[in-house]
Write a structure and sequence with these properties.
Rossmann fold; four-stranded parallel sheet; Asp/Glu/hydantoin racemase
Amino acid sequence: MRLLMINPNMTEAMTRPMARVAQGIAGDTAEIIALTAAQGFPYISSRAEAQIAGAHVLDVIAHHHDSVDAVIIAAFGDPGLMAARELFDLPVVGMAEAAILTAAMLGDRFSIVTFSPHMARWYGDCVRQTGLEARFTGVRCPKTAPVSVDTVATDLRADLIGLVEEATARDGADVVILGGAPLTGVASDIASEVQGLLVDPIAAATAQAIGLVRLAPTYGRRVARPVAKPSTGLSPALARVIAGG
């Protein structure tokens, strides 16, 4: 089994730890092919940036979909997720949606802890899109955004522990998602120091991608397939997919 993991952020330093976590979950079951965006932004932190990144995600999948069994979009806002599911006949998993669905399976109420207030409303929107808002206790984050996202997992470790404790003790969350690609690996690192269950989004996405491949969905007669049409200015690979090729 081969899983394509796309990091839509133009930061290889984020891709490496996500690939390690994903491969650790996959073990001998699947090979993780990890790719980093070649254009876009160092880190996606807004809906506008996610919209742009989503187009690049579709292009990357178009170039690789024939050689992999599933795709993981490795950015918490899941840029391009629903569009990719419309276009490609293989499982496409977003790490935000996967984390949310996993949290809902582990407990009654769940929260998201992240590292910047800029993402709080957007991450809340991710929950609403799953239809699980009634079980969501909210987003906890620092009051100010970090100057750099490169070292937030270590620089904000104590703050993240405190935020998890607030999410469980004050908000009533049974499960806490550590949201954002720079927080990959934090869940396992602090699990013994906090109350509640923690979810690492890329780990959840990998486990769900493997499960979906094993379910072997049949795409040949699926509904809501986009109408094939010509396009201008797209890469040949993506143009072929949109044209129904």
